[in-house]
């Protein structure tokens, strides 16, 4: 999956709830699992990623080491570890705090599904608070006078969180890497990141498993670019695989040469190209999996790395 950094997702009306990017995001959020014993619910911000905003910098002084969840429309929810991933890191929407029935319903249902049996602390106001009140049976509220960023609100949040054990840094790192893999590759993608996986680098991060680089996590997109070793691993999981019936000798796979493709592939996805079950290349999808199987002409995959 590849996305240009400057690409903005404009969400200017309630119809944005049904943009393909928003629908896909909400579907993938159903597979996410929180860490620890408590989930801290926070409002979104105009500035993206959220951590760059003044409000979230204040929140993080009290929430560091705990599972944070941001309520937002039209995407519903965003676990903190996903805030740098496209499209949540680059959507443009006015933050009014007023939520329609449909916005509250979509966010509320995802909130219930995500938090499940965890304790919930909500530092929210306005429409965000309405979502929590309407969809949560039990929740602790910390905002004072409708101002989540006030000193009193942050103090209340810290006091409540002291009752819970912080999540270890290593657990948080692995959870972030797995969450991105689930979003990018679909259900089962978390297995792409094993317990021994290591991430190196301050910005773009090289991802290693068993002493081999399996991917590059591009921070401009918050998504993985696969290496051939990563392709081997992903193919072993049966995810994003394109099977061809010819010897790959160039960096282009044309649709007539595709014998089978994962039906969940969409354009710009990272994919693994195989021949007789062996990985021969990795690259970016140009067509959907279904189109690859049915098209009689056109490019199906642009190859980044191939075995020579």
CATH hierarchy: architecture of the largest domain? 3-Layer(aba) Sandwich
Q: Whole-number average pLDDT?
A: 94
The CATH homologous superfamily of the largest domain is termed: Uracil-DNA glycosylase-like
**% residues in beta strands:** 25-35%
Total helices: the number is: 8
Computed structural class = alpha/beta
Domain count, please report it: 2
The SSE order reads EHEHEEEHEHEHHEEEEHEEEEEHE
Give the low-pLDDT segments: 1-6
CATH class of the largest domain: Alpha Beta
What fold name goes in the CATH topology slot of the largest domain? Rossmann fold
Can you describe this structure in just a few lines?
By secondary structure, the protein is of the alpha/beta class. The chain is built from 8 helices and 17 strands. The longest helix is centred in the middle third of the chain and has 17 residues, at 169-185.
Describe the model.
The chain is α/β, with parallel strands linked by helices. The protein folds into two domains: 153 residues, Rossmann fold; 71 residues, Archaeosine Trna-guanine Transglycosylase, Chain: A, domain 4 (Roll). The chain is built from eight helices and 17 strands. It has a six-stranded mixed beta sheet.
């Amino acid at each position: 999956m590849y996305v240009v950094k400057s690409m903005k997702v404009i969400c200017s009306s309630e119809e944005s709830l049904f943009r393909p990017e928003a629908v896909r995001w909400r579907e993938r959020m159903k597979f996410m699992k929180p860490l620890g014993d408590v989930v801290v619910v926070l409002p979104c911000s105009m500035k993206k990623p959220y951590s760059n905003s003044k409000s979230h910098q204040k929140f993080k002084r009290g929430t560091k080491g705990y599972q944070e969840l941001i309520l937002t429309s039209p995407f519903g929810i965003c676990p903190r570890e996903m805030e740098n991933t496209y499209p949540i890191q680059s959507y443009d929407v006015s933050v009014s705090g007023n939520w329609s029935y449909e916005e509250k319903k979509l966010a509320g249902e995802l909130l219930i599904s995500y938090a499940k049996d965890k304790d919930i602390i909500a530092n929210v106001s306005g429409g965000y608070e309405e979502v929590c009140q309407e969809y949560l049976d039990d929740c602790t509220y910390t905002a004072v006078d409708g101002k989540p960023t006030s000193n009193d609100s942050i103090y209340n949040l810290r006091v409540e969180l002291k009752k819970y054990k912080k999540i270890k840094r290593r657990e948080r790192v692995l959870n972030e890497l797995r969450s991105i893999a689930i979003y990018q590759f679909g259900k089962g993608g978390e297995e792409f990141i094993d317990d021994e996986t290591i991430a190196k680098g301050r910005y773009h991060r090289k991802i290693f498993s068993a002493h081999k680089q399996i991917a590059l996590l591009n921070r401009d997109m918050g998504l993985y670019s696969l290496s051939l070793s990563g392709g081997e691993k992903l193919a072993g999981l049966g995810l994003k695989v394109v099977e061809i019936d010819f010897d790959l000798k160039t960096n282009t796979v044309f649709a007539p040469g595709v014998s089978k493709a994962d039906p969940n592939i969409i354009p710009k996805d990272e994919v693994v190209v195989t021949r007789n079950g062996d990985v021969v290349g990795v690259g970016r999808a140009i067509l959907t999996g279904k189109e690859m199987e049915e098209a009689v002409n056109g490019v199906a995959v642009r190859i980044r790395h191939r075995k020579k």
